[in-house]
């Protein structure tokens, strides 16, 4: 029964991460931080699920690999955006410029 409460807590934390991702759309860095928070909550929920079903934790390594790739791509976009525009505001550049 206690395990169900833990899962509910992590689901609520994931929903808070989704809400913060939606509300912080002005800064790219804040969006990346909330996205990483959501990924961390998904990882914990996946570990709890795999542990509950007595599966192997083998799949979690694939998930972590893709999470690291997602984080690296986000940071590279952030660095290139700061180099070209000087900040991480989305209002400072137009999407029509190439």
TrEMBL record:
Q: Main EC class of this protein?
A: translocase
> Membrane-crossing residues?
6-23, 30-52, 58-82
What's the EC number here? 7.1.1.2
Which reaction does this chain catalyze? a ubiquinone + NADH + 5 H(+)(in) = a ubiquinol + NAD(+) + 4 H(+)(out)
List, alphabetically, the InterPro entries matched: NADH_UbQ_OxRdtase_chain4L/K (IPR001133), NUOK/Mnh_C1-like (IPR039428)
Main localisation? mitochondrion
Pfam families in UniProt: Oxidored_q2
Kindly give the membrane topology term recorded for this protein. Answer: Multi-pass membrane protein
Family annotation (Gene3D superfamilies): 1.10.287.3510
- Transport keyword on record: yes
| Molecular function terms, GO-annotated | NADH dehydrogenase (ubiquinone) activity; oxidoreductase activity, acting on NAD(P)H
Which GO BP terms apply? ATP synthesis coupled electron transport
Annotated localization: Mitochondrion inner membrane; Mitochondrion membrane
* This protein's UniProt keywords: Electron transport, Membrane, Mitochondrion, Mitochondrion inner membrane, NAD, Respiratory chain, Translocase, Transmembrane, Transmembrane helix, Transport, Ubiquinone
**Coiled-coil spans in chain:** none
Instruction: Provide GO CC annotations from the record.
Output: mitochondrial inner membrane; NADH dehydrogenase complex
Q: Does the keyword Metal-binding apply?
A: no
Concerning its family, UniProt says:
Belongs to the complex I subunit 4L family.
Function according to Swiss-Prot or TrEMBL: Core subunit of the mitochondrial membrane respiratory chain NADH dehydrogenase (Complex I) that is believed to belong to the minimal assembly required for catalysis. Complex I functions in the transfer of electrons from NADH to the respiratory chain. The immediate electron acceptor for the enzyme is believed to be ubiquinone.
Record-given protein name? NADH-ubiquinone oxidoreductase chain 4L
Q: Which organism is it from?
A: Uranotaenia geometrica
Encoding gene per record: nad4l
């Amino acid at each position: 029964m206690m395990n169900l409460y833990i899962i509910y807590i992590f689901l609520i934390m994931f929903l808070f991460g989704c809400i913060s991702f939606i509300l912080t759309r002005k800064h790219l860095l804040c969006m990346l931080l909330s996205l990483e928070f959501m990924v961390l909550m998904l990882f914990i929920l996946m570990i709890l699920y795999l542990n509950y079903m007595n599966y192997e934790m083998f799949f979690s390594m694939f998930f972590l690999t893709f999470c690291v790739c997602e984080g690296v791509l986000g940071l590279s976009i952030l660095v290139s955006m700061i180099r070209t525009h000087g900040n991480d505001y989305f209002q400072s550049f137009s999407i029509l410029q190439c």
